[in-house]
Write a structure and sequence with these properties.
The chain has four helices and no strands. It is mainly alpha-helical and about 110 residues long.
C-alpha cells in the first residue's frame, strides 16, 4: 500500500523546486523580451513572491521528510522566515493599493 502522507510531504518540496524553476525561467524570458538584465528582473515583486513561496514549500517538504528533531527545527525556522517574507510582501502590496490616490476627474464645465 502507498504511504500517502510520505507522498504528500515529498510533493511539497518537489512543488517548491518546480515553482522556483518556473519563476526563474519566467524572469529570464522577461529580461530577454524587454532587453533588461536578469538580476534587475529578479527584483520584481511578483518574482520575489514566487521565490519566497517556493522556499516555503521546499522547507516544509524537507521538514516533513526528516527523522531528526534538530533538523526538523531548522527547516521549520527557515520555513517561518519564508512565511514572514510572503506575508510581508502581500501586506506591502495591499498597503500600496489602498494608499494610492485615485485619479481626479477633470471638470468639463469650467468657465
Amino acid at each position: 500500500m502507498f504511504d500517502w502522507a510520505y507522498i504528500a510531504v515529498n510533493s511539497l518540496w518537489i512543488l517548491g523546486c518546480s515553482l522556483a524553476l518556473a519563476a526563474l525561467s519566467y524572469a529570464s524570458w522577461q529580461a530577454w523580451a524587454i532587453q533588461e538584465k536578469f538580476w534587475v528582473r529578479l527584483r520584481s515583486p511578483a518574482i520575489r513572491l514566487s521565490l519566497d513561496l517556493s522556499g516555503l514549500l521546499f522547507c516544509l517538504g524537507l521538514a516533513g521528510t526528516t527523522q531528526k528533531k534538530w533538523e526538523m527545527l531548522i527547516w521549520l525556522l527557515l520555513a517561518a522566515f519564508f512565511l514572514f517574507q510572503v506575508l510581508r510582501r502581500i501586506w506591502y502590496k495591499n498597503r500600496e493599493r489602498v494608499t494610492m490616490p485615485l485619479p481626479q476627474k477633470e471638470d468639463s464645465h469650467e468657465k
